[in-house]
Amino acid sequence: MSKKLTSRAEDYSKWYNELVVKADLAENSAVRGCMVIKPYGYAIWEKMQAELDKMFKETGHQNAYFPLFVPKSLFEAEEKNAEGFAKECAIVTHYRLQNDPDKPGKLRVDPEAKLEEELIVRPTSEAIIWNTFRGWVQSYRDLPLLINQWANVVRWEMRTRLFLRTAEFLWQEGHTAHETKQEAITEAELMNNVYATFVEKFMAIPVIQGLKTESERFAGADETYCIEALMQDGKALQAGTSHFLGQNFAKAFDVKFANKEGKQDYVWATSWGVSTRLMGALIMTHSDDHGLVLPPSLAPNQVVIVPIYKSEEDLNAITEVANGILSDLRGKNITVKYDNRTTRRPGAKFAQHELQGVPLRIAIGTRDLANGTVEIARRDTLTKEVVAIDGLNDKIEGLLAEIQESLFNKALDFRNGHITEVDTFDEFKTVLETKTGFISAHWDGTNETEDKIKELTKATIRCIPLEGEVKEGVCVYTGNPSKRRVLFAKAY
Amino acid sequence: MSKKLTSRAEDYSKWYNELVVKADLAENSAVRGCMVIKPYGYAIWEKMQAELDKMFKETGHQNAYFPLFVPKSLFEAEEKNAEGFAKECAIVTHYRLQNDPDKPGKLRVDPEAKLEEELIVRPTSEAIIWNTFRGWVQSYRDLPLLINQWANVVRWEMRTRLFLRTAEFLWQEGHTAHETKQEAITEAELMNNVYATFVEKFMAIPVIQGLKTESERFAGADETYCIEALMQDGKALQAGTSHFLGQNFAKAFDVKFANKEGKQDYVWATSWGVSTRLMGALIMTHSDDHGLVLPPSLAPNQVVIVPIYKSEEDLNAITEVANGILSDLRGKNITVKYDNRTTRRPGAKFAQHELQGVPLRIAIGTRDLANGTVEIARRDTLTKEVVAIDGLNDKIEGLLAEIQESLFNKALDFRNGHITEVDTFDEFKTVLETKTGFISAHWDGTNETEDKIKELTKATIRCIPLEGEVKEGVCVYTGNPSKRRVLFAKAY
Q1: pLDDT-derived band at A469, boundaries 50, 70, 90
Q2: Domain Aminoacyl-transfer RNA synthetases class-II family profile spans what residues (chains A, B) (predicted)?
Q3: A460-465 and B26-28: which strand pairing?
Q4: Chain A contacts in chain B segment 121-140 (CB below 8 A)
Q5: Nearest by CB to B95, which of A91, A132, A135?
Q6: With contacts defined as CB-CB under 8 Å, which chain A residues touch B117?
Q7: Which of A39, A67, A109 is opposite residue B36, by nearest beta carbon?
Q8: Where are the alpha helices (DSSP H) in A165-236?
Q9: CA nearest to A287, candidates A344, A233, A219
């Protein structure tokens, strides 16, 4: 914690990696591409989980748990899905170790303990869940099934980065089954909306809702809805996706139901997920060269109180005042910590709380005791003010709400200032080189053009926005007719 | 749900398996030995998690998350631990599938994508966590580390049973590091106490706290504390364990710290865990031939209200009354569901709620409307009474508390009635054949005698109790001196 953080201007990527580790959010582990989520980082994730879980339950979903492993024969049943994930599957082939006859004290895989059928560590759970749903659905009375699972999944990614892309990550995956196509589409849209609301309201990150192009869709989906956010370096980040799966999985796993007319039909499906990747979005949207900046809604400690004292007598007097403040704030459901560690000096505590993004810091010194005041430092603006203890409660409550709103507005201004409409491919390339951010451009709707633009610029179509004006035009690359502008960007 | 449950007297094991499936708690999956935890079962587990998590945090622990995989070289570092789990490890050897050249449309493991080092799917996380702790501890100022993880683990068990023994299960595992031996022992004892409190208070299951014998200890532990419960069939169930790990893992992973005198020393460790196995204990302790019986503290719905009506007009009138009750009960933090499904008749609803163990059922019919009454049915005693709506709130609250207490007392009476002191090996065998339960007997303290008794009777030493009178005697099998009685039983 002693060495200063690399600045964003100097090396954005290095800044991010350093910040994640120094703020005690996560670190790399001995397992390639797998991270350790440290207590402080996990406390933020827990807050995110709690809010999301509440929103899922309020929209009628129930949690359940399905196996970590998917037998290969089930995994390959939905061909597009299997093809999409085949290249990044961790595979269990054996179930026992034995003493290595050649190396005393070492173990080796017991060659006799080979599984009859390999097990895939779930990269996503459609296959195992749809194989289960077959037993749960007989008639329309059993529908809809509205299931969510909190779980770990594994995708053997070649290039990994803490939170943003890891071989193992934590997520939630919703899996639902419906009577009609329209119901399933409505569900997929609803959950994309839930994600947008969560990310904007709690994470203070503005998002654009849209549809993915065919080539960017989830493997096995008929339509993928997404929320896209913009990071401070001008790169986009897909923050959540919600898929309308049509009857693809129902057909692959033979999940039929008797409809109201008594006829057998395949059910309609959705799946949707957000992951610990959101932690990366949270960090990159708000943080600065001093460290993490957290929206109060998700901060493990919204307020920290640091006593500044020379004698034990002073400390006792300060502690008495601090206890009053603590109990007042807790009464308002504000999470507050009294940092009275004797192993650290106030300066070191200030530095730590700044680095870890505690929204408000209250310092209480002996002079404050005499004056009936405290010093409040605001993490997002790095400003300080001396205020009276009298009325502190409301002051703090107001400030927390103000910070939450201000972080969102700042991110919104930045995002809106980084959507550039272009009409020529030269402009397109210039924006990518100079300003970055989202590029709003016409596209002819073909995979070929999308691929070509990606190949030439590394920019991909982040989404076909669901809102905003829809106007026809001509493709920025081919000059062919285009129905509407789409959003391109370089992305995480 | 139409077919009656097998009775406990008829076939206890079959009764259990049927109940788990019919009450919608869990089912077997397509993966050998792995279960699907269904929404109703998962809702109970979530309640257990919430209470435990609160207790862990109140005792100063923080949650974190560590990788699912353990590289083989780390896994084998602590030899006893490795030896203990080697025979039940799922092992990842490859990281990619490819199209099978011999079978169009099928996938196979890509032989080129072999991992340099095999990865063990964690059966428990000491190895990966202690390898991480090395980087977290430099000085005594960094201690204690009080970490907990909620996770899935895999143990390739040959004989599995829903909840009780599954290849994959959900659990929490606490891992702590301390300055001194005594501190670590105190922690291990504290957490065993936390488990006992949780299981008795929330699950309404009486437990005996004790120590495991050397041969029953956790692999890698110097001492294992446990809580042991007794099921209705007279078999014991280990409900939770807390281990004092000495410096074994610190030495295996070289985790040293500078102590207050500035000298380097290995840290002292504990680990402790409870799992979805507790669901099995919950089911088997209280349930009866009619289905599940749940303690109100853990019931997803503590109360269910069923309207009994002929006309829609009646239903509307009943719903109005029901809504008042719902809002009153919710105001008291009682979870209550209004079962107004039109797809099921009242009889079918009664049967379902009985099978699923809802503690209290309120039926409201048209006659009740006229009389200002409702009918309350109590699941544990299967008794019914008609009571006035006036004052219903307090009545329900009182009944829920009474049920919670009554379930515990009933289980306690049963348990206490099934601890038999024996002084000869003949008595020992007779009790096992006739009465079962715990057998309190003298044992000479040797592994040999313990093994021999196990071989002859299938009974194992469940624990050396931490409480109760300690009197010397002679071993029930060898006649050699014994320091105190221990508890034997056949066990799950």
Answers
A1: confident
A2: 27-295
A3: unpaired
A4: 121, 128, 131-132, 135
A5: A91
A6: none
A7: A67
A8: 181-201
A9: A233
Query: ipTM more than 0.95?
Result: yes
Please report how many Cα atoms fall inside a 13 Å half-sphere around the Cα of residue B37, on the Cβ side. 27
Burial class (CB in 10 A: 0-12, 13-18, 19+), A27: middle
Gap from A65 CA to chain B (nearest CA, Å): 5
- Structural domains in chain A plus CATH codes: 12-70+132-286 (3.30.930.10), 296-403 (3.40.50.800), 419-489 (3.30.110.30)
Cα A142 to Cα B288: distance, rounded to the nearest angstrom: 27
Query: What's residue A1's pLDDT?
Result: 45
Quote the percentage of chain A above a pLDDT of 70: 99
Cross-strand pairs, A83: none
Q: Is A64 close to B38, i.e. CB distance below 8 A?
A: yes
CA nearest to B173, candidates B126, B137, B130? B126
Taking 70 as the pLDDT cut, the residues of chain B under it are 1-3
| Chain A residues closer than 8 Å to B87 by CB | 96-98
Q: Give the distance, in angstroms, between the CA of residue B129 and the centroid of all CA atoms in the same chain.
A: 23
Identify residue A475 by its one-letter amino acid code. Answer: C
Q: Are B234 and B436 in contact (CB under 8 A)?
A: yes
Radius of gyration (Cα) for chain A, nearest Å? Answer: 26
- pLDDT tens digits for B193-250? 999 999 999 999 999 999 999 999 999 999 999 999 999 999 999 999 999 999 999 9
Q: Could you give the CA distance from residue B368 to residue A450 in angstroms, rounded to a whole number?
A: 68
Each residue of A414-464: pLDDT tens digit?
999 999 999 999 999 999 999 889 999 999 999 999 999 999 999 999 999
Q: How far apart are CA A359 and CA A304, in angstroms?
A: 8
- Per the CB < 8 A criterion, the answer to whether B364 and B340 are in contact is no
What is the average per-residue pLDDT within A315-331?
97
Cross-strand pairs, B257 = B265
| Helix ranges restricted to H, A392-446 | 392-416, 425-434
Residue B106: which of A125, A86, A215 has the closest Cα? A86
Percentage of chain A surpassing pLDDT 90? 97
Q: How far is A63 from chain B (nearest CA, A)?
A: 6
Residue B254 to chain A, least CA–CA distance (Å): 15
Give the tokens for residue B438.
């715990």
Q: Classify burial at B256, counting beta carbons within 10 Å of its beta carbon; exposed 0-12, middle 13-18, buried 19 or more.
A: middle
